[in-house]
Amino acid sequence: MTDLFSEHDVIDVDTHVTEPADLWTSRVAKKWRERVPHLETFGGKQFWVTDGKRGIAPGIVSLAGYDGHPPDDFPPTFDDIPPSAYDARARLKHMDREGIYAQVLYPNVGGFGSQNFIKIPEAALKLACVRAYNDFLTEWTNADPKRLLAVTALPFWDVRASVKEIRRCADAGHRSVLFPSQPQDFDQPDLSDPHWDPIWDAAQALELPISFHIGSQSALGVKEGKRHKPTKFGRKARFTQVSALAFIGNALGITELICSGICHRFPKLNFVSVESGVGWIPSLIEALDWQWHNAGAAHEHPDYLLPSDYFRRQIYACFWFERDMLAAAAKLYPDNLMYETDFPHPTSMSPGPATIAKHPREYASEALAAMPRDVVAKLLHGNAARVYHVD
């Protein structure tokens, strides 16, 4: 078996930092200490509580190597979580063991688009929570800023504050900008609305890609709220449905980027569909191209490129467990796919007694073995190095 990791400086474009227990309580003004995210124990398990509302458990997003299945089985307390989930030095050692050169880093507590903070009434407190996270991440990545690549969280409900935060974090060395792929799900203007143009403009000027992480929108068909609960689903079957639908949920954002003219108006701005997989990409883009002509959009917008041209020019997607469909996607879009592990999440390539995941090195040697070596080089290093400006 060929060890492809030994041939490349592998860049893992989607991982998460399990936020330390004192991240917000140690950084936000004392008057808000009881309202910022902090840990409380319920039934022997720790959960994050923000403004009196219980959120995720740190253990549910830190299952790497754990002998249990989500969503009920997870490390009960912070002490049961592996240090590589929350400690930068331990993370670098983990990366060395797995043969990974660099990792792109995403949050948990604020949501994969910062949407959890939008529920806080006070604008100043919402902004303070976002800024505290970004400051923490800057310090965390300073353990090795060439290998630990920060993604800026945004107070996206405030465009002016978001532009300031993009510039502030870019000065601190951040490599990307996090944005919800469907802000309209959180009572904000549609993704295609010119309301967001100042954010696109700031990111483009600074050459920072926009990251659409799954979970930054309501999952297809399973939006929270007044919806009947299926009586024949087990909890783990339900988790399977929700997570699989979330993978392809970014199709909504990708189609809006292309069809609404965002890519046309911001031709140098890159967008990354994170933790979404890639197998569905060829079908989506082929359908967009066909309908572009079939519906007469080519006549409606004669100065536009084909959807596939916009995708090839400035949209990227990430893979981490696919095999059969990966080969077809890589053949059509070798310059637009990037590798991730999702460490230390429940779906990560982090083997444990209860998971079918394989070590990243082993997976790559099997899934990419039949591909041309120049394509493998792009998938494991070249594409991500270009998008995230990795030396």
Give the helices and strands, then pairings.
Elements: E1 10-16, E2 38-42, E3 45-50, E4 53-54, H1 88-98, E5 100-106, H2 123-141, E6 148-152, H3 159-171, E7 176-178, H4 197-205, E8 210-213, H5 235-249, H6 251-259, H7 262-265, E9 271-274, H8 281-294, H9 297-300, H10 307-314, E10 315-319, H11 324-332, E11 337-339, H12 360-367, H13 373-388
Parallel strand pairs: 1-5, 5-6, 6-7, 7-8, 8-9, 9-10, 10-11
Antiparallel strand pairs: 2-3, 3-4
At CATH level 3, the topology is: TIM Barrel
The CATH first-level class comes to: Alpha Beta
Report strand order across the widest sheet. 1-5-6-7-8-9-10-11
Q: Could you give me the name of the CATH homologous superfamily? A: Metal-dependent hydrolases
Give the number of DSSP strands: 11
Biggest sheet: strands, sense, closure? 8 strands, parallel
Number of domains: 1
Q: What overall geometry do the principal axes of the alpha carbons give?
A: globular
List low-confidence stretches: none
Task: Tell me the span between the first and last alpha carbons.
Answer: 29 Å
- The sequence of SSEs as H and E is EEEEHEHEHEHEHHHEHHHEHEHH
Say what oligomer this is: single chain
Tally of DSSP helical segments: 13
The whole-angstrom Rg is: 20 Å
Q: Output mean pLDDT.
A: 93
Can you give the helix content as a percent range?
A: 25-40%
